[in-house]
Amino acid sequence: MMTEEQSRAGPHQGQPILVAGEQLEGDPLEQTHVAMILLHGRGATADSMLELAAQWNQPDFTYLAPQAAGNSWYPNSFLAPLASNEPFLSSALTLLEDVLESIAQAGIPPERTMLCGFSQGACLALEFAARHARRYGGVIGLSGGLMGPDETARNYAGSLAGTPVFLGCGDIDPHIPQERVRLSEEVLRRLGGEVTMRLYRGMGHTINQDEIETVRQMMGSLVARSFPT
Fold first, then answer.
1. Considering only CA atoms, which of 105, 163, 114, 155 is closest in space to residue 134?
2. CB 188 within 8 A of CB 130
3. All residues at 6 or more sequence positions from 9 whose CB lies less than 8 Å from its CB, including other chains
4. Cα 212 versus chain centre, distance
5. pLDDT confidence of residue 32
6. CB 126 within 8 Å of CB 139
7. For the CA atoms of 127, 128, 133, 138, what is the dihedral angle to 10 degrees?
8. Along the 229 residues of the chain, how does pLDDT read in single tens digits?
9. Measured between alpha carbons, how far is 196 from 139 in angstroms, rounded to an integer?
């Protein structure tokens, strides 16, 4: 059996984690009270997710964008047997757990932290939220779905306890079957998430303006809930 130290020495451990915010100096986590973890897609970079975050114009947030080893969180399709994506998948999930813990240690609990990913990063964010169900500030899957073949058991434990969840995807996305997006909606709703799911007609594997605006509204709502006037 692997020790905890060995389990935390996978391919994604030790990779850079970019941290950004609108603070002028010091550690952004020490100056803000809400955070978002941004997970890039296959072949992309952490920098690309920070470029996306700039469109949301939310100065209250600190963004943390981990970089996957080799620019990919796992080697095969998200629909492939889970074992075929190891040890990369477990390494990525462990990394997410560690990033959340570091944010919590800085004084921002999971209920004020949002998970957001695009494509492969969306699949990772959704799978992590399902496997570690609890109240988060929000969970956002842009062009992604829960992982594994259709017959994968979805007997996740825990509860999302009303976590706002947004799933957005094109109805002709060549990588993400809309049936998997619908299944993900069903499973996350069953876990207690407040799920909004939108399939955009004629849209491929990309992010549109409605998705950007929806995420911006979710972020604003989290700030308002966390610090009511």
1. 163
2. yes
3. none
4. 15
5. 78
6. yes
7. -100
8. 223 443 467 999 999 999 988 664 566 677 778 999 999 999 999 999 999 999 998 888 999 999 999 999 999 999 999 999 999 999 999 999 999 999 999 999 999 999 999 999 999 999 999 999 999 999 999 999 999 999 999 999 999 999 999 999 999 999 999 999 999 999 999 999 999 999 999 999 999 999 999 999 999 999 998 876 5
9. 10
Residues 6+ apart with CB under 8 A from 152: 82, 146
Cβ-contact 99, 64 below 8 angstroms? yes
Q: Is the entire prediction scored with pTM above 0.90?
A: yes
Residues ≥6 apart with Cβ < 8 Å to 191: 130, 133, 156, 158, 159, 160
Task: Tell me which residue has tokens 């920070």.
Answer: 50
CA 28 – CA 134 distance, rounded (Å): 25
Q: Provide the residue type at 175 as one letter.
A: H
